[in-house]
Amino acid sequence: MLLADKWDDYELLDCSGGERLEKWGRYVLVRPDPQVIWETKKEHPRWQNPDARYERSQSGGGQWHKGGASGGPADKWQVGYNGLRFNVSLMNFKHTGLFPEQAVNWEYITKKIRSAGRKVSVLNLFAYTGGATLAAASAGASVCHVDAAKGMVFRAKENAKASGLDDKPVRWIVDDCAKFVEREIRRGHRYDALIMDPPSYGRGPSGEVWKLEDGLYDFVKLCAGVLCDDPLFVLISSYTAGLSPATLSYVAESVLGGAAESTEIGLPVASCGLSLPCGATCRWAADDRCLRQTKGGKPLTERETSANGVR
Does residue 105 have a pLDDT over 50? Predict the structure, then answer.
């Protein structure tokens, strides 16, 4: 497991009983997490007095309840990571507009682009609020940022401005990702690197149902058509429980050839020193050696992977 352990403005304080206790900048939030199936003592005092708690409804969905000494978070506030700034807020379906575990991939993206020794163009699909886009742009790449949700692309632009990157060569595209890739292939546009974080479930522009486990192989095969003859890297993220990291590697290798390395990504839990798995990542690059995933039977932290030359 790769751990995002370099955060200053985010901390996973504790997790128990299907919930996370998290510090986002100056605010402490409680959010549900289906991965947290254990019951441990909730001894941290902020469990009882968070700034906001998301509670699910028996009829589906849920809502935020503000409280704490602050009276609840502001409508929008910022957190920073390695020079990047992100606007976060209490969004629908328990989200804040940022997945902090993805910081391990931002580090990987930055290192690969800076060490490329050439100009790099990046296609970021299902790009959400732009964490990977900002990492790539800050490293000197030109980026095409694509997401079907207009609101998320707007938030990504806000994050670019907050990070001082609004003058960088980024194309902001609101479109269905598959349709956009098909058009790019017809146009003959090619990219040096490909990033994707496809949803577990969704509906296409004509109402067609998307399930990641059913559609990922065909989608990666389609996207291979926009890669240049000498691609730098391909990065695939997954939050679908039914897809193991090994499956992501098999998909990438069967389409792209060569070798891919996949593993879980996660967050350190401050209260106990354990690690919370948050998803999976697959990294394919022609010049990558196999990553060392463990050290003495324990997951490597982000600092340890950096020390070993791994990102």
Answer: yes
Q: What is the CATH number of the domain that holds 135?
A: 3.40.50.150
Same domain membership, residue 168 and residue 27: no
Number of domains in the chain: 2
Q: Considering 94, 120, 145, which residue would you say is the last residue of a domain?
A: 94
Q: Rounded mean pLDDT of 32-49?
A: 95
pLDDT band of residue 212 (cuts 50, 70, 90) is: confident
> What pLDDT shows up at residue 210?
65
The answer to whether residues 118 and 72 belong to one domain is no
Judge if 158 and 248 occupy the same domain.
yes
Q: What is the CATH number of the domain that holds 20?
A: 2.60.40.1180
Full 3-state SS string of the chain: CEECCCCCCEEEEEEECCEEEEEECCEEEEEECCCCCCCCCCCCHHHCCCCEEEEECCCCCEEEEECCCCCCCCCCEEEEECCEEEEECCCHHHCCCCCHHHHHHHHHHHHHHHCCCCCCEEEEECCCCCHHHHHHHHCCCEEEEEECCHHHHHHHHHHHHHCCCCCCCEEEEECCHHHHHHHHHHHCCCECEEEECCCCEEECCCCCEEEHHHHHHHHHHHHHHHECCCCCEEEEEECCCCCCHHHHHHHHHHHHCCCEEEEEEEEEECCCCCEEEEEEEEEECCCCCCCCCEECCEECEHHHHHHCCCC
Above 90 in pLDDT, residue 223?
Answer: yes
pLDDT of residue 208: 66
Q: What is the pTM of this model?
A: 0.89
Could you list the residue range(s) of the whole structural domain that residue 48 is in?
A: 2-94
For the cut 80, the answer to whether the pLDDT of residue 11 exceeds it is: yes
232 plus 112 within the same structural domain: yes
pLDDT of the residue at 201: 74
